[in-house]
């Protein structure tokens, strides 16, 4: 596993401040639905693609921290992968921050092994974060949204009430595996896709806070690498 150094702008002080973050542990939380019906809908959505139903929920998958990127273009092999908007919790210098990212995943390989399917894809994140302490008290008011610019259609949208809280997921992970160190990032689960999971050449991600009137957004384009014939 490789550490990833990224520069993120922290909002929450008198003015935004750019800080260097060094991420050495990257965790993808899956099956994080708070509501049983919504969770079942996401499980069925993935079962239709051939993904095996989980043995327990939530699940946690460790992948290479070097997959994190704030770049606007990511390279993927073929057209079997797709993104999904998620809040991202980051622990740095003993403090928690939250931003938005996409757990881009190879859907064909996901039917073989979930961890491997996630390991093969870059994990785009926004270069902006909020202090967790500033949103923890009204987290259930936060909205997650993703959009497919190429077809000008919403892909995912809904309140974070559909998902377990990031601090709850962190507590569950630490109960199972012990305290996480500084430099840990956790993707915190996603919402069902409107119209079903599908490839898109570009994606727009948003984490919207209606209470404080602010939004973290990130967009990225997929540079599809060809698959050579054997």
Strand % is 35-45%
Strand count, sense and barrel status of the largest sheet are: 8 strands, mixed
- Structural category is alpha+beta
Rg for CA atoms: 17 Å
Strand order of the largest sheet: 2-1-12-9-8-15-3-4
> Mean pLDDT, nearest integer?
91
How many beta strands in the DSSP annotation?
Answer: 17
What letter string, H or E per element, gives the SSE order? EEEHEEEEEEEHHEEHEEHEEE
How many helices? The count is 5
Helical coverage, percent range? 10-25%
Sequence stretches where pLDDT stays below 50 over 5 or more residues: none
What would your notes on this structure say?
This protein is α+β, with helices and mostly antiparallel strands. It contains five helices and 17 strands. The chain has an eight-stranded mixed β-sheet with strand order 2-1-12-9-8-15-3-4. Strand 1 and strand 2 form a beta hairpin. It is globular. The two termini are 30 Å apart.
Topology:
Layout: E1 4-11, E2 17-23, E3 25-30, H1 36-47, E4 59-63, E5 68-69, E6 73-77, E7 81-82, E8 85-92, E9 95-102, E10 105-106, H2 107-110, H3 114-119, E11 123-124, E12 128-131, H4 132-135, E13 143-148, E14 153-159, H5 166-177, E15 184-187, E16 202-209, E17 214-225
Parallel strand pairs: 1-12, 3-15, 5-11, 6-17
Antiparallel strand pairs: 1-2, 3-4, 7-10, 8-9, 8-15, 9-12, 13-14, 13-16, 16-17
Brief summary:
This protein has 230 residues and is an alpha+beta fold. It has five helices and 17 strands.
């Amino acid at each position: 596993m490789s550490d990833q150094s990224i520069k993120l702008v922290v909002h929450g002080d008198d003015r935004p401040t750019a800080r260097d973050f060094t991420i050495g542990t990257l965790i993808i939380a899956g099956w994080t639905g708070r509501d049983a019906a919504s969770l079942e809908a996401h499980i069925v959505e993935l079962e239709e693609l051939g993904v095996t139903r989980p043995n327990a929920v939530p699940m946690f998958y460790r992948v290479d921290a070097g997959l994190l990127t704030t770049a606007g273009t990511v390279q993927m092999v073929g057209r079997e992968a797709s993104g999904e908007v998620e809040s991202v919790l980051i622990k740095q210098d003993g403090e928690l921050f939250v931003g938005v990212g996409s757990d881009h995943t190879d859907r064909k390989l996901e039917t073989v092994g979930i961890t491997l399917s996630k390991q093969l894809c870059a994990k785009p994140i926004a270069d902006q974060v909020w202090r967790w302490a500033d949103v923890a008290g009204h987290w259930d008011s936060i909205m997650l949204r993703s959009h497919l610019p190429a077809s000008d259609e919403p892909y995912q949208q809904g309140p974070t009430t559909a998902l377990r809280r990031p601090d709850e997921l962190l507590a569950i992970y630490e109960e199972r595996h012990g305290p996480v160190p500084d430099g840990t990032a956790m993707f915190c689960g996603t919402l069902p896709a409107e119209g079903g999971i599908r490839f898109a050449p570009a994606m727009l991600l948003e984490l919207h806070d209606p209470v404080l009137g602010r939004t973290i957004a990130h967009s990225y384009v997929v540079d599809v690498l060809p698959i050579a014939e054997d």
